[in-house]
Design goal:
Blueprint: H1 5-15, E1 18-23, E2 29-32, E3 35-36, H2 48-69, H3 76-89, H4 91-95, H5 98-104, H6 108-115, E4 120-123, E5 126-129, H7 131-144, H8 181-216, H9 261-297
Antiparallel strand pairs: 1-2, 2-3, 4-5
Length: about 300
Amino acid sequence: MKTSQSGIELIKRFEGLELEAYQDIAGIWTIGYGHTGNDVQPGMRISEREAEELLRRDLKPREQAVANAVKVPVNQNEFDALVSFVYNVGAGAFRGSTALKRLNRGDRVGAADALTWWNKATVGGVLREVLGLTRRRASERALFLTPDGPLPVRDPENIAENSRIGPVEEAPRRGNVAQSRTVQGAAIAGGAGVASSTMGRDNAEELDQIETNIESGAGLTEAPGASAGDAPHVGEGDEAPNGHDGETVEMVEVPSGRPSKHEVHAVEAQVQFALLILIILAVLFVIYARIDDWRTFRR
């Protein structure tokens, strides 16, 4: 895409024509329609035709910079406004600008607004607003937002022509609910909460069953009700396995492979802590998504 004649006229109007080299407010030697570079020297003079040629030559790298940086389709007016902007601020500044980031996200109104932020320059070592830059940014914004061709409407047959009717806001929405980061974050948080609850319940049930088995003696080496003659041998020096009333006390052996109650609780606590961290991250994601949606989609 090439800069149209209306875009060239906008650049000419704000750059102004100077046929003799001069220093701009930033101290840079300039000639013609804002042409700068090592070829501009004090005392240099050119004709109006040469100034036009310099402008056409200077437009090519600016047009290429816009084409390379912009990742969404733009119309002629948008392209012209961006070329004028790059002609003034430079390709490097444009690539790092908020205007470009917003445009590539599809926020064209936000991009146009961000153009107007570039209205200051360092004058005498002090950063200050420059009236000429403010006017130029306003004109570039207006050109950027000027429709090029028929307005895109969803149902042309049902469009009212009276522009004085009281408007109401209808904020843009995402294509479908699944694309909403709020919904995605809520799904993550909900899934983590369900997983944490399920795992905690399963661990508690397992621990309860183990303790029940210990109390009942199920699956142990000595079953309840064994006779005194079947009691395990007690070595010399060992405490006799008798109760306070002299009755025989059954010996119960706990399988060595079974985790202790404390080990089970430790694992349960670690898993639930990890899931808690996941829930916190999901909640933070939801908060961020809501802020970004409000900023980007005007919700």
